[in-house]
Amino acid sequence: MQGKMTKIVTPQMLKFQMLNVIGNPYVHIFGVVFPIVLALLITQIAISELPGDEMAPMVTTSIYLGMGTIIPMAVLLMGYSISYAQELSKGIPERMQLFGIKKSVIFCNNMIVQTVFLIAAFVIFFLSGYIFSQLERPTISGLVIYILCMIVFSMICLSLAHGIACLCKNFGRTYCVSMLLYFAFMILGGMMGISYDNLPGWAQIAAKLLPVTYINRDFYQIWTGQPYHYMPMIQSFLFFGAVSAIILFLALKRPFGVYQKDEMM
Description:
The chain is mostly helical and 265 residues long. It contains 13 helices and no strands.
């Protein structure tokens, strides 16, 4: 087992994938800096409108829990999709396979690097919250559920990002699609200053299908151990996961010759 793991995970591939992530400005700007700045800005605005300070910790914690979903969306949905689309357009995965580097090796090493970066981004994000804002401490169950939700949400974002990159296989198209989805999820999830109740009817229907809506709007109850009805959130995860799985399935089934024909056109 140890020899097999050594062949799948190699220091050279980890270094290569880490350099790809570190050299991608989108994950730093939108996955680390932007969530912190936006959370601090919205928190200060929301607190300034409160009649007293007793509700400040609740408002701050709710905002930070919702803003945490920006990290996997930026790092995976946008950053990974754009980076992988660039690699596909240059034929890097195909050339790696010619040198005997299997897809499983590339995928496993990339997932390890992406996981490490996500953990570091979350640590920086919540440390800034505890330093500059009034975050409430979670219950053990609330913390565990939040971590599980972020893991599942990250896996779904990764599947969707990989599918988008494989279908577009072009930096411009991938960037456009991923950026539109990124800001659409933020707007529908209530992370751009527009709450769910202020959205038009059709937007509320779309928002109910996204996990970010429930994490941003309701997760404070789970975080503090209050009773919560989980079924709508679970259904949103199932729907979002099913859509991402279908897109990934269609992308993997698309023959490579189609890409060549599209690029020639």
